[in-house]
Every structure is written in structure tokens, then in C-alpha cells.
């Protein structure tokens, strides 16, 4: 009898343990993991720029959490395209592969139907309505020159552009001043686009849930990136940054399919 009771108890213990256990590395449905996709190759040492392709450089900025990754783009050596397909959204890596992009970043915010909540221009096609008195706009003119400005300071007036995306909030103002100070303490993956004082485009991603928006603004204002102006892009599960070349690259994929993305193509 004692042996029977011990066997029954052992069986009950094993069943209870198995019923309460989760498979290794499992994530509950609907809850995205906060761990970033690892770079395809080791990123450059913190503080150093590493050349990947013509007009494309990569740098890592160490932070208390997961390092921030930055791609610096020389607009004279590449061309920019806003890919847009709300009917068939795809992961950022798939956008990059489709276009043969040397770099890519997620765009601004979108609704449940995949439509931008602000204005977007893809190959001269204008979609959505501009932010008013808030946010910023990154645009490429017909000559391939990038522009980035505060929509509160200069509302969009309908000027035609070849490509454009809008983001919110503005993060850095000229003079390396943090532009967003309302701190709600909500930390998440973050992405941003910026222009430096030499007119180069910076694609910037924090792959871990390291910063609130106010902390993100302060971090970029104080970063050694020579930023002239920067605006926030969609974060959280949309965050992604891709760079690929024969000399290595970076792969931080989005956690969800994206209806649009900013792609950097070779000339």
C-alpha cells in the first residue's frame, strides 16, 4: 500500500509540473518578445563607424540595455524609396529583399487597415493627411535631396516630393536640443530618422525596451552623432533596421508585418 501511495503521489507531482510548465523560449499568444533580432554579423565597436557599402556606414552606441544601432547614409550615393502595400504587409527584411535595399527602416504609425495615420508619399503618390502642429516630415525631392523639418514650425504646404514619411513626436531640434519632455515612463523599442549637420541621413533604432519617448529624445540630443534634427518613427513591434552588403550588415527585423517602409537602394 505504501508503495502504491508513493507511486500515485509521484505521478501526480509529474503531471502537475508538466501542466504548469511552458515550452522553452515560448511566448504567450499576443505578447511580443522584447528580445531583439541579433545582427547578422557583429556590429562595429562602440564609437566607430564601419563602412558597409557605398554611402552606408554602421555604428553601435552602447547603452545600459541593448545597444542602439545607427546607419549613416550619404544621400549622394544612394536613392530612397518608400515602399507601400497595405494589402500585403511584410516584415522589414522582406521589404529589403524585395527591393534589393542596402538599408531599410520601418516607417511611421499606421491603423488597423495598414493605412498611415499621417501623410506618406510613395513614388509621387500622396496617401493620407499631414500631421498639423505636431510631428515631423522626412521627404526626398526630385533631385534626391533629403529634407527633415518640424511640422509645428513649418506645416506641409502641398509641395510635391518624390518620397516622404511623417513621424511623431519631434525628438531633436537644431542646436542638439531635446524636443520632447513629457515622460510617461513607458519604455519600448524605438526608431527614429535624423539629419546630421553634414546633410547625411541617420537611421536609428533601440532594439530593446530601453527608453521612454522623453528618454529617447534626451538620449539622441546628447549622442555624439552631430544631429541637426530628428523625429520619432513607429516603435514597439514595428521597430526594425536592416543593413546588408558583401562586408556584413545588421538585421533587426520587425516583429510584425509592415504596410510601408523606408528603403535605401544603391544607385
Automatic annotation (TrEMBL):
One Pfam entry for this protein is NAGPA
Keyword ATP-binding found: no
Which key words are in the record? Answer: Signal
Q: Where is the Phosphodiester glycosidase domain?
A: 99-243
Q: Where is the signal peptide?
A: 1-19
PROSITE patterns attached here?
A: PROKAR_LIPOPROTEIN (PS51257)
Q: Extract the PANTHER family matched here.
A: N-ACETYLGLUCOSAMINE-1-PHOSPHODIESTER ALPHA-N-ACETYLGLUCOSAMINIDASE
Instruction: State what protein this is by name.
Output: Phosphodiester glycosidase domain-containing protein
Please tell me the species this chain comes from.
Answer: Chloroflexus islandicus
Amino acid at each position: 500500500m505504501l508503495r502504491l501511495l508513493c507511486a500515485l503521489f509521484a505521478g501526480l507531482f509529474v503531471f502537475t509540473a508538466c501542466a504548469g510548465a511552458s515550452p522553452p523560449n515560448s511566448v504567450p499568444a499576443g505578447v511580443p518578445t522584447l528580445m531583439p533580432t541579433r545582427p547578422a554579423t557583429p556590429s562595429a565597436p562602440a564609437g566607430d563607424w564601419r563602412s558597409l557599402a557605398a554611402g552606408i556606414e554602421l555604428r553601435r552606441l552602447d547603452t545600459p540595455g541593448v545597444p542602439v544601432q545607427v546607419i549613416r547614409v550619404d544621400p549622394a550615393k544612394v536613392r530612397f524609396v518608400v515602399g507601400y502595400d497595405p494589402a500585403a504587409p511584410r516584415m522589414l527584411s522582406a521589404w529589403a529583399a524585395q527591393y534589393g535595399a542596402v538599408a531599410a527602416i520601418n516607417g511611421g504609425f499606421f491603423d488597423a487597415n495598414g493605412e498611415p495615420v499621417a501623410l506618406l508619399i510613395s513614388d509621387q503618390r500622396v496617401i493620407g493627411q499631414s500631421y498639423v502642429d505636431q510631428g515631423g516630415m522626412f521627404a526626398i525631392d526630385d533631385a534626391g535631396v533629403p529634407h527633415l523639418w518640424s511640422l509645428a514650425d513649418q506645416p506641409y504646404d502641398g509641395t510635391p516630393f518624390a518620397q516622404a514619411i511623417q513621424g511623431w513626436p519631434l525628438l531633436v531640434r537644431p542646436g542638439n536640443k531635446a524636443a520632447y519632455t513629457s515622460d510617461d515612463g513607458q519604455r519600448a523599442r524605438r526608431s527614429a530618422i535624423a539629419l546630421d549637420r553634414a546633410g547625411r541621413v541617420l537611421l536609428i533604432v533601440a532594439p530593446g525596451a530601453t527608453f521612454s519617448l522623453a528618454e529617447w529624445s534626451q538620449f539622441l540630443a546628447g549622442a555624439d552623432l552631430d544631429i541637426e534634427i530628428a523625429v520619432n518613427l513607429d516603435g514597439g513591434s514595428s521597430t526594425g533596421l536592416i543593413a546588408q552588403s558583401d562586408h556584413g550588415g545588421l538585421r533587426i527585423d520587425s516583429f510584425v508585418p509592415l504596410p510601408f517602409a523606408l528603403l535605401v537602394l544603391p544607385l
